[in-house]
Every structure is written in structure tokens, then in C-alpha cells.
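Running low. Invent one:
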Amino acid sequence: MSYPIRRADVADAPALQVLFSCPSVVRNSLQLPYPSLSHWQTRLAELPDSTHALVACDAEDRAIAYGALMRPPQLRRAHTASLALAVHEDWQGKGVGRQLLGALLEYADSWLGLTRLELHVYADNERAIALYRQLGFEEEGRLRADSFRDGEFVDGLLMARLRGPLAGRS
């Protein structure tokens, strides 16, 4: 199945508040539970030009997944971006995340000319890690006791995808 993908807009705030309230999304992201609508309205209204946020939508044009490429302010890192991805738990396992991640990679490669994409993922998020590996991301490091989640410290992984002249570097 194909899902419409478009740039995120302030009008998506209610759907993103719901998406980021899903227990599985809270568990596997760095977000805190109980996000407010005003948080998402402000966040979307004040996205810097260096952040490229996309959503995948259902048939009613409601955002069911959110993804972003966030470019750093340092000019010496202009070839890089950090990647974030979240899928509403009712839509997980249906190809939405893969399709949105594919759109983000195409945007990074063909429109922004990025050669390094990096992300943070919890070490126990096996489905996400498998997807990232399938799309060319490699583990670069483990962050021990990186985040506090559900009353305990958990490890994170740093993963990156290099392309162009950087691909194949070890």
C-alpha cells in the first residue's frame, strides 16, 4: 500500500499529539509522555529552515507517521543531518515507516546533497534497527545507560548511513 507523503504543517499538530502519545512511540523515542497540543503547534510553527519534516498520511490526510531531517548549524557539518522517525502504533508493521524513511532518504540524497545521515535508536528496538540496516545504516557506537525509560536506564545505538565518496569508510 502507498501512503501520501507531504511536508508537515501546523494543521498536523492534533494528529502528531496523538501519534506521540502512543505508548510504543513514547517508549521508543526520546519524547516524554503526555505531549500537549500547544507543544506540537509551537514546534511545527517554529521549525527552523534547517529541519525538513515530513508526514505520511492515511486516506483522510491525517498524519500517521512523522519523519525529519535536522541539519546542524555548524558549516563544517553541512554534509550531515540527524534523522528522526515515528509511526503511530496502529500503523506499525504496514510499510508506513519504510515508505516515509525512503522519502526522507530520497530528499536527503537528491535534493539536499547530504552524504551522512545519523540517528539514535534504543538498542532493544529490533524492528527499527532491522529497517535502518536494510536501508544502509550501520551501527557506529553504543551509548551505555544513555536514556532513562520506564524507570530504568537503557542503551542507545548510534547509526549512520554514508553515501557518495564517504561510502565504505571504516
About this structure: The CA atoms of residues 136 and 161 lie 6 Å apart. The chain has one domain: 5-166.
